[in-house]
């Protein structure tokens, strides 16, 4: 096995492991947000959560795959580590960006439902209702 | 708030048509329709000025909050799944004066509009 192939294999293993770790974190901790957004509708929250994670995997694995090629010869262990650090660094930045984008979506969904529960205008007056009177 | 009571004018064709339309819309909170100044309305709201409710649409929340005229229209929109965003948009400080003017004109001329549109049958 040439040193270039080992570099590629290490790159793939690390990238895939990192992506799975971030996706799992997102899946586990994003659920609470979504259950709140959908007013305790667990089935809908789980479904949206799953769909978001699938999108997350597709974008990240897509990037990992596209960025695989080094384009220059790697002949020593030193060069291999340098190449790996650049590649893994880029994968980490993309993962970070995607992660914050997902957080942004979660928080915006949540804010939307929070503000939307207030009437758009203030009342002109208050009146006693028959139900209140009986009480 | 989980329910709104809408005190509408049963004499006006436009209001009846609006009532039919509302009945078909998907709602976020319940809407109860009660003819204004009826026995039912007086029973539900014993201390409300019922002569005033004949002049313009009145909406009352389950907490006793009274919304009159244009505000009542916005509250009804707010109750609907498809129009809640619009209720907020029309209630912003920039749009509220226009909303109030348009709604008042429609409301004050509701009998003429009903006649012109042939909704009195």
Task: Provide a descriptive summary of the structure in words.
The complex is a heterodimer of chains A (135) and B (121). Chain A has one domain. The longest helix of chain A has 39 residues, at 77-115. Chain A has helices spanning 3-37, 42-66, 77-115, 130-134; one strand at 125-126. By secondary structure, chain A is mainly alpha-helical. Chain A is rod-shaped and about 85 Å long. The mean pLDDT of chain A is 85. Chain B is α+β, with helices and mostly antiparallel strands and 121 residues long. Chain B has one domain (3-116): 3-Layer(aba) Sandwich (Glutaredoxin). Chain B has helices spanning 13-24, 39-44, 50-55, 70-78, 84-90, 96-108, 110-116, and strands at residues 3-8, 30-35, 58-61, 65-68. In chain B, strands 2-1-3-4 form a four-stranded mixed beta sheet. In chain B, strand 3 and strand 4 (65-68) form a beta hairpin. In chain B, helix 4 packs antiparallel against helix 5. The radius of gyration of chain B is 14 Å and the shape is globular. Chain B starts with a strand and ends in a 5-residue tail after the last helix. The mean pLDDT of chain B is 88. Chain A binds chain B through residues 116, 119-121, 123-130, 132-133, and chain B through 1, 43-48, 60-68, 71, 74-75, 78, 84, 87-88, 90-91, 96. Strand 1 (125-126) of chain A pairs antiparallel with strand 4 of chain B, so a sheet runs across the interface.
Describe the secondary structure blueprint for this structure:
The complex is a heterodimer of chains A (135) and B (121).
Chain A: H1 3-37, H2 42-66, H3 77-115, E1 125-126, H4 130-134
Chain B: E1 3-8, H1 13-24, E2 30-35, H2 39-44, H3 50-55, E3 58-61, E4 65-68, H4 70-78, H5 84-90, H6 96-108, H7 110-116
Parallel strand pairs in B: 1-2
Antiparallel strand pairs in B: 1-3, 3-4
């Amino acid at each position: 096995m040439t040193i270039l192939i080992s570099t590629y294999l290490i790159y793939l293993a690390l990238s895939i492991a990192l992506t799975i770790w971030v996706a799992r974190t997102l899946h586990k901790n994003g659920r609470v947000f979504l259950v709140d957004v959908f007013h305790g509708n667990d089935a809908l929250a789980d479904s949206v959560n799953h769909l978001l994670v699938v999108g997350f995997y597709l974008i990240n694995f897509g990037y990992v795959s596209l960025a695989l090629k080094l384009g220059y010869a790697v002949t020593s262990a030193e060069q291999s580590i340098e190449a790996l650090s650049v590649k893994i660094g880029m994968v980490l930045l993309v993962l970070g960006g995607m992660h914050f984008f997902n957080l942004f979506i979660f928080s915006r969904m949540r804010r939307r439902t929070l503000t939307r529960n207030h009437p758009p205008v203030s009342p002109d007056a208050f009146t006693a209702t028959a139900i209140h009177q009986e009480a | 708030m989980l329910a709104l009571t809408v005190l509408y004018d049963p004499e006006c064709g436009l209001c009846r048509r609006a009532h039919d339309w509302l009945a078909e819309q998907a709602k976020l909170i319940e809407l109860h329709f009660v003819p204004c100044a009826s026995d039912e309305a007086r029973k539900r709201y014993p201390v409300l000025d019922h002569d005033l409710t004949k002049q313009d649409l009145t909406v009352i929340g389950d907490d006793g909050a009274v919304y009159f005229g244009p505000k009542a229209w916005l509250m009804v929109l707010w109750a609907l799944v498809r129009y809640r965003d619009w209720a907020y948009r029309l209630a912003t400080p920039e749009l509220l004066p226009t909303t109030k003017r348009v709604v008042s004109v429609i409301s004050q001329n509701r009998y003429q509009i009903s006649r012109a549109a042939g909704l009195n049958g």
